[in-house]
Amino acid sequence: MRILVTGGAGFIGSRLCLRLSREGHEVTVLDCLSRQVHGVNPAETSPLYRSVRDLVRMEVGSVGDEQAVDRVLEGQEAIVHLAAETGTGQSMYEIKRYIDVNIGGTGLILDRLARGGHSVRRFVVASSRAIYGEGRYRSRVLGVVYPGPRREEDMRAGRFDPLCPATGEPMEPLPTDEDSKIHPSSVYGITKQNQEQLVLTVCPSVGIDAVALRYQNVYGPGQSLRNPYTGILSIFSTRIKNGNPLNIFEDGRETRDFVHVDDVVEATFASVFSEAARNQVVGVGSGCPTDVMTVARTLVDCYQVEVPIQVTGTYRLGDIRHNFADLTKARRVLGFEPRVAFSAGIRDFARWVDTQPVPSDAYEKSLAELKSRGLYK
To answer: 96 lies in a domain?
Structure first.
């Protein structure tokens, strides 16, 4: 097939392009080569870009550029739309940029497809667990509950778990399935919700099969070590390599579903071809929650660099406490089964980091930006 991958020089996209190319598919990439991810001179500073540039038809440009989009759409049979601005914290103050790229770029592609005269039959869009906001919980008296954003007075008092509205007690986190309530708590989450709604509404109306993949926290070799706004493993690794202390938000017991990039690539590859995934939303994760303190301690052990691990009780507005995937549907419609356990994947990631130049640590600057806007407490 002839397949367009937007964001195809990025962390997930570059590996997907290699996977598609190995299977004999003709791949076109549209990527703006963002400096935040690829550095100032991608030909020298971005191994991800270098890994695909000679294997694909490469168009350097934004998904918001009409001429670039028109050029890359010609002749395509499938689209995997990965290009996006990512990071919940940054999205809360770079609002226009996130909306322009994530919603505007998606809208432009769909606008072109709605005009007809193309050969696209399948459109896969990368959505996110961020659309759920907080995950799914069980209350002792109310049953299943979907809590809204946590109250700032509770967070200030060190009560970080979502509390039952009836009893005020902490609740039990449950796996989040595709039918769970959608109530994003960040601008990033809102843009991802809009992306998948646009794709799932427009594509079937013009004869294109659509799939929305709600990724959990993707990690692995190749993840940007420069970007201080997204990717906790990368952020912690950069801090450790620079000998800086690890700042643990809240009490360190907040959890995330960390899914290895190789597993995400396999799920995304399957979604391009699966008939059962047609016009479906599918959650993609490991199905296992891991708390932030475990991540910090494991990375310190991997690098054998002793840095202070500081549990600060600080918090970011828009952050969630727990969310991990229910994989029932992914197994059914994609045949997806995660193969990389976090205990092995984090060591695989750390071995890769050990081969990389130590990047400068911009984490404190990112926190200062959040604090100056009242988003970091």
So the answer is: yes
